[in-house]
Amino acid sequence: MKKSWTYLGLLFLVLVIAAFPFSGKAEDSASLNTEPLPVVGSLEKLESLLSRMEGENQRLIFRTGETADSIIPSAGASPQQGDKAASQASKEYSGTNVQVEGVDEGDIVKTDGEYIYQVCSNRLVISRAYPAREMKVHKVISFSENCTPSELYVDDAFLVVIASVSGRTYDYAPTRPGAEIYPPPARYQPFVKVIVYDITDKNSIKNVRELELDGNYLSSRKVGSFLYLAANKHIDRYYIMEGSRPDLPGYRDSASGGDYTEIGLDKIRYFPDCSTPSYLLIAGLDLNQPAKNADVSSYLGSGEEIYVSQSALYTAITRYQRPSPLLKGGKGAILPAEANTSIYKFALSEGNVSYKAAGKVPGRILNQFSMDAYKGYFRAATTTGDIWRQDEGTSKNNIYVLDGGMNIIGKLENIAPGERIYSARFVGDRAYLVTFKKVDPFFVIDMSSPRTPRVLGALKIPGYSDYLHPVDNNHVLGFGKDTVEEKWTDWNGNEGSTAYYQGMKIALFDVSDVTRPVEKFKTVIGDRGTDSPLLHDHKALLFDKDKGLLAFPVTVMEVKGDKAGATAYGEFVFQGAYVYSFSIEKGFSLRGKITHLSGEDLLKSGHSWYHSDKNVERVLYIGDILYTTSGRMIKAHDLQTMVEVNQLVLTQ
Fold it and tell me: What is the dihedral of CA 592, 594, 600, 602, to 10 degrees?
């Protein structure tokens, strides 16, 4: 039997390597390149680079051995409430929950303190929301069927809409001998569209600028009047091989006449460790100068996550490499694929973007909150290995600190072996990590010395946090799921246990004593199956410490009747916003619930629910009024009494 397992292990390793031909050897985790990136230059060079990349895999993550409960998307949120206009002297209003102060993020709903701007399917609806008793739809901007707006930015002067367009279609005839095809194949090219509106006069909103980038939208940020965005364009190998032409990226900019501009190979640079057959396009533009050309650059490669400070943009992508040596730890032992995250740094300056350096850290990052820039250093939290393994290849969690040249100068490794990161947050001289497999270790990490980060304290409790939200220097909110651990015995008599997630959990961690963090307060919403957009998108949170206000949308499921046990799913009972009063001294107190569903909707709901256009998606406030938005309506409630003031139907 032991010999059979050895053969199976070797066979498994061979199949993995055959299916995913990684790069030849593991590279060290030093800076990749601080020199100017090389230029692709020619079709021959492009084909050579693509051939090298072919078959390389970007996301080989073995989840065997994990329970379904532990494979849940995670996200993060931020203590910042986005940019508030200078005109807020008369009344305050909430902004988008962002990661970095002074760096705005696009969202599906925005307000300027008087109007609410929101994406509703293929429309942009602008409603005059304040005063609440006089709410009305002010303007509706419709888009074509193949144009889907996804995010908005709003300031005193401009409204920016970012949309994904399903694509242009091209027919082409191959030119290589013997490659003739009739009819010629069609090419499908999606692109990202940016539309800038002048909203200084709400009665005469004007389209003043458009920019289109080839590819699929990655992300964007707005720093003051400067907008930066990134897109990934997949390279069509067939088009190159059969047509003897490079599949080049391009863009359209109304500031330069609106003609399509193809970026030539003499202007496309490549990352030396690139292993993805695609182009990364990064653009910067000054909203205050609609006639100024956008700064657009392209790189052979792609990005998975981005982090943006006020002066730099970082893109990150995970790569997997063949382990070396292939076997260790005894006959039949299988080494996991080694994951490394490549990070590329770009400087931002008044709408211009320039490449600066590249670095690499072991492991894979979770999301944008796994990255941070502070006092000239870049910090990253990663997970290496696989959670299902019980040998040296088991998962471990790490923190790395890189200098301005993206060289690793400090590290803290092997945190919580056998678990993976569910949420991370860097706050000044501290970092907070939540890892999970059966319990939730909440780690407090000292980052004051970049070269020697160290664990200060840890707390192990049931459940996990999908994201962490700093409240002040000594308190952190955690949002995630409660869990129940159940023991089992298999047919061989081996004992074990599995953790099953339950309802949504909100916790307040007190880190006043960093060596002994405590869970000061907690509350659990619903039962197994309860979920919230907040657990996947930090922008769904409304938090204002000064107002003692905490609110977010949630779908609540409750176990009814004689159902029991950790695996029992609840039945649908509510979708809408939960609004809490919050204080560090008293914790959470449910102030009220707001739903856009009618009594008839609830009677028709049955056992479960779906993504209805009546689902509350965002919660915000203007002055003393709390607003909840869905694709169907806006509701206004008094912030203190929670009495409904008015409602506005957006569409039938």
Answer: -70
47's CB contacts (< 8 A; 6+ apart) are 240, 241
Q: For 475-570, list the strands marked E by DSSP.
A: 475-489, 495-510, 518-525, 542-544, 549-558
| Residue carrying structure tokens 């009047």 | 225
Neighbouring residues of 284: CB distance < 8 A, sequence distance ≥ 6: 226, 227, 228, 294, 295, 348, 351, 352, 353
Distance of CA 94 to the CA centre of its chain: 21
Cβ atoms of 270 and 277 closer than 8 Å: no
Mind listing the pLDDT tens digit for each residue in 511-549? 999 999 999 999 999 999 999 999 999 999 999 999 999
> Distance between CA atoms of 377 and 91, rounded to whole angstroms?
38
Say what the pTM is. 0.86
Rounded (10°) CA dihedral 267, 268, 270, 275:
-170
Tell me how far apart the alpha carbons of residues 524 and 376 are, in angstroms, rounded to a whole number.
40
Question: What 3-state class would DSSP assign to 316?
Answer: strand
Is pLDDT larger for residue 327 or for residue 609?
609
- CB-neighbour burial class of residue 451 (10 A; exposed 0-12, middle 13-18, buried 19+): exposed
Which residues face 310 on adjacent strands?
A: none
Round to whole Å and give the CA distance between 537 and 535.
6
Three-state SS across 468-480?
EEEEECCEEEEEE
Per DSSP, the chain holds a count of helices (H) and strands (E) of: 4, 39
Q: Which of 60-64, 200-204, 288-292, 594-598 has the lowest mean pLDDT?
A: 60-64
612 and 111 Cβ atoms separated by less than 8 Å: no
Beta-sheet pairing, 147-154 with 136-142: unpaired
